[in-house]
UniProtKB/TrEMBL annotation:
Membrane topology: Multi-pass membrane protein
Subcellular location: Cell membrane
Record organism: Paenibacillus woosongensis
Protein name per its UniProtKB record: Iron ABC transporter
TM regions (residue ranges): 42-59, 71-90, 97-116, 128-148, 169-194, 214-243, 255-280, 286-305
Family listed: Belongs to the binding-protein-dependent transport system permease family. FecCD subfamily.
Keywords carried by this UniProt record: Cell membrane, Membrane, Transmembrane, Transmembrane helix, Transport
């Protein structure tokens, strides 16, 4: 958090940081920079936490060790609906973005799971990943097709498309917070039942778990967290994958610990990536979605090679 407040195209000294945080009467350029970075840092932490929890839930629901909102195409579905809203409905507020992003994320998640469930063996990890990759590619093409002939849409969201937390505002955070709270509550409540689900549907059913309803509710929470974050920051990929895998390596598979610690891990990953993007792109900045993709893509390849895409 301190690094996010002091590092960037303009380095902030300790004295300037204190002025910006605690002395509201100070109206220097440096103090104003600190105040602007506060909302950006808060959203990086909250958005990273949401993506971390979403990744943990999606991996558990699909029993797929490399499931992630970006890999399964959920981010791209949210992006498509938001871009359509801007191009055809003239939406411009965070509240409108969020509802459209949630609808797009939910429809895409259902579509990918439906495609991945076809054929022999049901929804296997490799089929889900392939269905998600194909769906994401198709939806990305639609997003591009909608934006290219509409320069005003492209100008307005060219940074949003690659994922950025630089435009975070307190009003946007206030709009995002209720979705984060509801998603976290659902994730925490369903964690014990998801532990039983990891043992197999038959074992979970024997323990009194309604597996169909559990998957629906947990997936809804994952889509809620991912869609709300995507609406405000754009499609930021690989955070859920990296956060959850790091915590599983340290703490094991118990979701009662994995879910809250994935939130912390996701917050750290997204905030550090944002700081790195500012430093690498100085005096401008490199959007955080580019940084997470640059880090996450090689790790995804390594995980797929080592696990051979086995089910959890």
């Amino acid at each position: 958090m301190i690094a996010s407040l002091v590092l960037g195209s303009r380095l902030i000294s300790f004295h300037e940081l204190i002025d910006g945080l605690f002395h509201r009467d100070v109206d220097s350029y440096e103090a104003n920079v600190v105040r602007k970075r506060i909302s950006r840092t808060v959203f990086s932490l909250l958005g990273g936490a949401a993506l971390g929890i979403s990744g943990a839930l999606m991996q558990s629901v699909t029993r797929n060790p490399i499931a992630d909102p970006s890999i399964l195409g959920v981010n791209t579905g949210a992006s498509l609906f938001v871009v359509c809203g801007i191009a055809f409905l003239n939406i411009s507020t965070a509240n409108q973005y969020i509802w459209l992003a949630l609808a797009g994320a939910a429809i895409t998640a259902v579509f990918v799971f439906g495609i991945g469930s076809m054929g022999r063996g049901g929804a296997t990890p490799i089929k889900l990943v392939l269905a998600g990759a194909a769906t994401s590619a198709a939806l990305s093409s639609l997003v591009t097709a909608i934006m290219i002939p509409r320069s005003y849409v492209m100008d307005q969201f060219r940074f949003w498309q690659v994922g950025s937390v630089g435009s975070a505002t307190w009003s946007g955070i206030a709009t995002f917070a209720p979705f984060l709270i509801v998603g976290i509550m659902i994730a925490v409540i369903t964690a014990p039942a998801l532990n039983a689900l990891a043992l197999g549907d038959e074992v979970a059913t024997g323990q009194g778990v309604r597996t169909g309803m559990l998957r629906l509710v947990a997936a809804l929470a994952g889509v809620l967290l991912c869609g709300a974050t995507t609406a405000l920051a754009g499609p930021i990929g690989f955070v859920g994958l990296l956060a959850t895998h790091a915590i599983r390596l340290i703490l094991g598979p118990d979701l009662r610990f994995v879910i809250p610690m994935s939130a912390m891990s996701g917050a750290i990953i997204l905030t550090i990536s944002d700081v790195c993007g500012r430093l690498i792109g100085s005096p401008g900045e490199l959007e955080v979605g580019v940084v997470t993709a640059f880090i996450g893509a090689p790790i995804l390849i390594i995980l797929a090679m080592k696990s051979k895409v086995r089910s959890l």
